[in-house]
Automatic annotation (TrEMBL):
<feature type="domain" description="CobW C-terminal">
    <location>
        <begin position="249"/>
        <end position="344"/>
    </location>
</feature>
<keyword id="KW-0378">Hydrolase</keyword>
<comment type="similarity">
    <text>Belongs to the SIMIBI class G3E GTPase family. ZNG1 subfamily.</text>
</comment>
<keyword id="KW-0547">Nucleotide-binding</keyword>
<dbReference type="GO" id="GO:0016787">
    <property type="term" value="F:hydrolase activity"/>
</dbReference>
<dbReference type="InterPro" id="IPR003495">
    <property type="entry name" value="CobW/HypB/UreG_nucleotide-bd"/>
</dbReference>
<protein>
    <submittedName>
        <fullName>Metal chaperone, involved in Zn homeostasis, GTPase of COG0523 family</fullName>
    </submittedName>
</protein>
<dbReference type="GO" id="GO:0005737">
    <property type="term" value="C:cytoplasm"/>
</dbReference>
<dbReference type="InterPro" id="IPR051316">
    <property type="entry name" value="Zinc-reg_GTPase_activator"/>
</dbReference>
<dbReference type="Pfam" id="PF07683">
    <property type="entry name" value="CobW_C"/>
</dbReference>
<dbReference type="Pfam" id="PF02492">
    <property type="entry name" value="cobW"/>
</dbReference>
<dbReference type="InterPro" id="IPR011629">
    <property type="entry name" value="CobW-like_C"/>
</dbReference>
<dbReference type="GO" id="GO:0000166">
    <property type="term" value="F:nucleotide binding"/>
</dbReference>
<keyword id="KW-0143">Chaperone</keyword>
<dbReference type="InterPro" id="IPR036627">
    <property type="entry name" value="CobW-likC_sf"/>
</dbReference>
<dbReference type="InterPro" id="IPR027417">
    <property type="entry name" value="P-loop_NTPase"/>
</dbReference>
Length: 351
């Protein structure tokens, strides 16, 4: 779905899709099972890898063709069949034909080894889905006991964390205070500014789904600068945040001092992604373009860039920044950093 660089955006009537990810054994399926019992998730479609993994047999009213289950609370649950695009297309058409209830949100549970970036690619490149679904962010379940080790030793876990907009810290009842602190510290090294919520009750965080993702609002407290990972820091501090972390993951945080030329910046960013896409786990930014009155949210993964979106309710003048989360050799990460810095300089408008 194309969108102009600036100006007021029309109301987005597409169905928001939230990805639920997390490493093997981190509690994703347990979380989804709990969510499916929540009356607040009425009009939500949940896509899981195996319908049999959902322990709600006593709640089932019927199972229609295509492996779609209608739950007592009005939630639609289905298993991922083949390509994600096919599953989402079938869900939409069944609701349109009134074979299942209409839904206003989708939760997609990924496998423990999956990279959420693939979901963004599918939503961006399937014409049918582009017009009907909007990526609304990624929730990651993170094991409080083993999370620090997994983030350091498992590339899949670090990739999942790079895509996350919210972390749900699980198994806190089993973790020692030291283990929980180590997990949170590891999370902060891999993804500064990322918000973590302890999963004591579903009610403690369920409301965040309504405001999740960089295309809605950034949540309480640090706001948009918190989402970007630059909350409360000046230019020199932000520049110094480009530090290496475990598992070869490096966070490159660059302040943006002012307005950019949209054409030069977007063309240069595309060239950067083409050259280093495999190493770029995530790009996120708060940017202002010349001639535009609102701050724009930038989000990308690997070689893909999601359409720019204006920050809701905010005017220009907020702190701006560009963050790249990369994984690869030191030489490549430095090359990406140098190229990103040069791009910002070349795109900067005078004054």
């Amino acid at each position: 779905m194309s969108q102009a660089v600036g100006g007021p955006a029309p109301a987005d009537r597409r169905i928001p899709l939230v990805v639920v990810t997390g490493f093997l054994g981190s509690g994703k399926t347990t979380l989804v099972n709990r969510l499916l019992r929540e009356p607040g998730l009425r009009e939500t479609a949940v896509v899981v890898n195996e319908l049999g993994s959902i322990a709600v047999d006593h709640h089932l009213l019927r199972v229609s063709e295509g492996g779609v289950a209608l739950l007592e609370g009005g939630c639609v649950c289905c298993s991922l069949r083949g390509e994600l695009s096919e599953t989402l297309r079938d869900l939409f058409m069944q609701a349109l034909q009134r074979r299942i209830p209409a839904f206003s949100r989708v939760l997609l549970e990924t496998t423990g080894m999956a990279d959420p970036a693939a979901v963004l690619f599918t939503l961006r490149h399937d014409p049918f889905l582009v017009e009907r679904y909007a990526y609304a962010g990624t929730v990651m379940t993170l094991d409080a006991v083993h999370g620090a080790v997994q983030l350091s030793a498992q590339p899949e876990a670090s990739r999942q964390l790079a895509q996350a907009d919210l972390v749900l810290l699980t198994k806190t009842d089993l973790a020692t205070p030291a283990q929980q602190s180590e997990t949170l510290a590891a999370m902060a090294r891999h993804h500064p500014g990322l918000r973590a919520v302890t999963v004591d009750t579903v009610q403690a965080w369920r409301g965040t789904l309504d405001a999740l993702g960089p295309y809605r609002q950034a949540g309480p407290g640090s706001g948009w600068q918190g989402w970007l990972g630059l909350s409360g820091v000046g230019a020199e501090t932000a520049r110094a945040m480009a530090t290496a972390s475990h598992a070869g993951v490096r966070v490159i945080s660059l302040p943006v001092p002012g307005a950019l030329h949209a054409g030069r910046f977007l063309a240069g960013l595309a060239a950067l992604q083409d050259a280093h896409g495999e190493a770029i786990l995530r790009i996120k930014g708060l940017l202002r373009f010349s001639g535009q009155a609102v701050t724009q949210v930038l989000h990308g993964v690997h070689k893909q860039r999601y359409p720019l979106a204006p920050v809701p309710g905010e005017k220009a003048g907020k702190a701006l920044g560009l963050v790249l989360i990369v994984r690869g050799s030191t030489a490549e990460s430095r090359a990406i950093e140098a190229r990103a810095e040069a791009l910002l300089q070349e795109s900067a408008e005078p004054g």
